[in-house]
Amino acid sequence: SWTLEPQIVLHPYDVWNVTGQDVIFGCEVFAYPMASIEWRKDGLDVQLPGDDPHISVQFRGGPQRFEVTGWLQIQAVRPSDEGIYRCLARNALGQVEAPASLTVLTPDQLNSTGIPHLPSLHPGEEAESEEGEDYY
C-alpha cells in the first residue's frame, strides 16, 4: 500500500482588504493517508479559530481523490488581523505549511494610498474567490 506525505497543491494567496470586509484564505492538500489542515497566525502555535468569533474554518474532501481543502474566513477584518496566516497540513508521514499575508487598510489609508501602489493580485485570484462562494 502506498503512502504520500502532504503536498500543498494550491497555496493560500496573499490578500489585502479594507476594514469591515470579509477575507477568505484557501489551501488544497494532496496526501495519503488524508491530511488534516490547521491554520495558524504569525509565529504562534495557537490553532485558529481558537475562541475568536470573527474567524471560522471549514474543511472538505476534494476536489481530487486524496485531497482535502481548507478555508479560513475572517469576517469584518480589522487592523489587528494583519499578519501571516499559515496553512499547516499533516499526516502520519510528515507536515508541510504554506504562508499567506493579510494586509488590512482603513478607508482613509485606501484613499491616501490609491489602488495602483497596492500589491498586485495574483493571476487567477478573482476566479478563485468566486469559486469560494459555494462554501458558505
Automatic annotation (TrEMBL):
Compartments, record wording: Secreted
Keyword Transcription: no
Positions of the Ig-like domain: 6-103
Biological process terms in GO annotation: regulation of cell growth; regulation of signal transduction
Gene3D superfamilies, per database record: Immunoglobulins (2.60.40.10)
Matching InterPro entries: Ig-like_dom, Ig-like_dom_sf, Ig-like_fold, Ig_I-set, Ig_sub, Ig_sub2, IGFBP_rP_mac25
Keywords: Disulfide bond, Immunoglobulin domain, Secreted, Signal
Cited Pfam families: I-set
Record bears the keyword Signal: yes
Molecular functions per Gene Ontology: insulin-like growth factor binding
Gene Ontology cellular component annotations, sorted alphabetically: extracellular space
Region (Disordered): 111-136
Record's compositionally biased regions (Acidic residues): 126-136
Chief location bin: secreted
PANTHER family linked: INSULIN-LIKE GROWTH FACTOR BINDING PROTEIN-RELATED, KAZAL-TYPE SERINE PROTEASE INHIBITOR DOMAIN-CONTAINING PROTEIN 1
Name of protein: Kazal-type serine protease inhibitor domain-containing protein 1
Organism name: Neovison vison
